[in-house]
Request: fold
Amino acid sequence: MSGADEVKIAFTVNDDRVEVTARPMARLLDVLREDLRLTGAKEGCGEGECGACAVIIDGALVNSCLVPALQIEGARVTTIEGLAKGETLSKIQQAFVQHGGAQCGICTPGMILAAKSLLDRVPHPTEAQIREGLAGNLCRCTGYVRIFEAVVRACEAP
Amino acid sequence: MQAPSIGRNVLRREAREKVTGRARYVDDVTFPDMIHGATVRSSVPRGKITKIHFDPSVPWDEVTVVTAKDLPGANVIALIVDDQPCLADGFINHSEEPVVLLAHPDRATLERARRGVRIEVEELPAVLSIDEALAKRRIAWGEDNIFKEYFIKKGDVDAALASADVTIFEAEYETGAQEQLYIENNGMIGVFSETDGVTVWGSLQCPYYVQKALMRLFDLPAEKARVVQLETGGGFGGKEEYPSMIGAHAALLAMKAKRPVKIIYDRAEDMAATTKRHPSRTRHRMAVKRDGTIAAMDIDFVIDGGAYATLSQVVLSRGCIHAAGPYQVPNVRIRARAVATNTPPHGAFRGFGAPQSIFALERHLDLVARKLGMTPEAIRRKNFVKHGGTLATGQVVRDEIDMNALLDRALRESDYHEKRKRFARENEGSAIQRGIGIACFLHGTGFTGSGEKYLASVVGVEGTPEGRVRVLASSTEIGQGTNTIFAQIAADALGVDADSIEIAQPDTSKVPNSGPTVASRTCTIVGKLVETAARSIRQTLVDAKLLKEPYTPDAFRAAVTRHVNEIGPLRAKTTYEQPKWLKWDEVNFIGDAYGSFSWAVYVAEVAVDTRTYEATCTDFVALQEVGKVIHPVLAAGQIEGGVAQGIGWALYENVVWKNGRMSNDRMTDYIMPTAADLPPIRCFFEEVPYDGGPSGAKGIGELPMDGPAPAILNAIEDAVGASIARIPATPEVVMDAMTRGR
Reply:
């Protein structure tokens, strides 16, 4: 692609201000993975069905494969890389480690961000709310049982 | 001494990398100068290639193009039968056959190039179903469309069928294809150098399968065909054989482009082109006495293998052996055939033929029970095999199994009897009809028959200068927990904690061939080799007087360090030896089909909405006897995940075929269960140790795929009285069964 088609887009990722040069309709997923080398967001389907590419934009859980780069000008994006503080895992990450919430791990970044998005809105969700909150993220390994367990335990953690 | 780590929930090895997004899967890896590769495929199921057109508007001088003419060695993906080409050369046998490979640095240009190739084909009539394959009016493979045929014969079935004191029950059952749908699509990176040969890095289950294919294709010795597994985002059998194809393609492009080439399939390509579970058709003819005793089973089991032989004969043998279930029947005849059709080859998927034949049997037992006026529970109790009894192949059951006790507990945990009564009461006049169903089954651990003997797997263990111990095996971590359980097994064999154990990355240049990561064999078969090899280096240290029992973990570490620094490398290799008692006649399918079995009773509860004909699984109890449970959380994770896939296969996952191609090749219209679709999956274990496994462990990975579909369909029949003989039981299928004869 020629540079003439590209635009500069400035936004915040995990508290860092970044500026990228990209085609306006480039997918946020590709901007994150290729331009910023944040490869925690994964491509599972490319059409917003599986949630493996989920990130949080201005507080809302979004599938980054469906977001055109132009739309993130000025936005605050949180990816899985932004959750741990140094080597200290977030409560949700810690609960996934301890309670078997990750198997193959490919859905895990999106799943953890979906759980964060849920708990940010509903700190103590019911089982039905957890099922609903995670229903946009597909996992083929776990049957979701240990993922629910991890989310419940994360709510209980101090 | 260190407290044992087996039986405890030590933390998953790669969990931290996975929850932080740091784990590196193939699409996260780049090499300097790397470019992207793509595959141009046929679009018709069968025909002759007459010409390949290249759109002149594409800058072809920038594009690396590989066709069958560029292959340095044999045009074959070596596996069992050498029938599948790496690139079609003149003839098309299925609609997703790779014909031309392309590579370019820019993905948008690459996509333009891919669309700019048109393969002109003189289309020929295709074979597109099991019935068409068996009719033999058109031949898709060999002389008769039959990849393989097996028979099991026990007793005298014809005499039993003709006996005066039995009733004959006949029915036919069908199961559909199922996509593995690992969330990480297939992908490989190929690298070529004149001096080192080919290297491929990627998402795969069986490094040495890929190596074997590369050696034939490039005509290179083993040391010049290297395969390295990267973090793998799920496999379920779907990354057993097809990665050989993708690895070969990436390596061919890399050789021609003289640069590393990465091929990542998108979801549609992965769904349409790579392997799926074999569709099946099973006919049962069962002779049953008035009291429910089965006098004879006469079973005709057919699976659709697709266009090439791949692993179909192995899938067939497992399906065939499991077709008679955990029952003691004096007369059994099973005819099993894998047939060819012009669809992309079907392949390995968790359960490997057993879920198909078990579905038919467990549905058929409910049909027989109903017609005899018995309960589903009673007919099974009447026929369960016991310790010391014989299975269909004549194998004497060595496991100390009590299926009656297992059934008792499963019914208790699921509140089965109380629910049956309650549902009968509550269903009266309700739009929602509830029901409950059971399935009883077994699953053989490891390769069938003499398969493990032929594999002759090897595991290595070595000490490091830091006093740690490294396990060397080609078994891959694909989410199921290989790395974690190997560490536990080695730790307990050495009397140290699991954190003192390192697991080498599967890399054919560094680890021995411990066989493929398939067939529920990793924990039991390979884990036992890990245990034995670890014990061997412990003995070496004791014999060298560097270690005296009992010892502390610190003393062990010091002894390893001293050995490595002062005496030399501390290494042991262990090769699989078949148990002496195991006798298998692979021609006549007589004898010990497996070293051990895992045994299970599953109970499913369903709700059927009689207005929409939608069936939902509302509760699930999975009780299994799997020998010693090495890691309770990982083991339960295997069961829960397998049950979820089983529920998907039973109710939702419908591969729609159009002229030999999967037409619903996307997650939008191929439906797998979400968090909102699944019931609570309640998992229980019984543990009867098996002396052939580490600390007594048996196979676990495939077992949970076998039970959900028949239990759910039995529950639907219990709920609405409709007998459904095929899956997936989508609302259309349920409606058809409920309104039939109205």
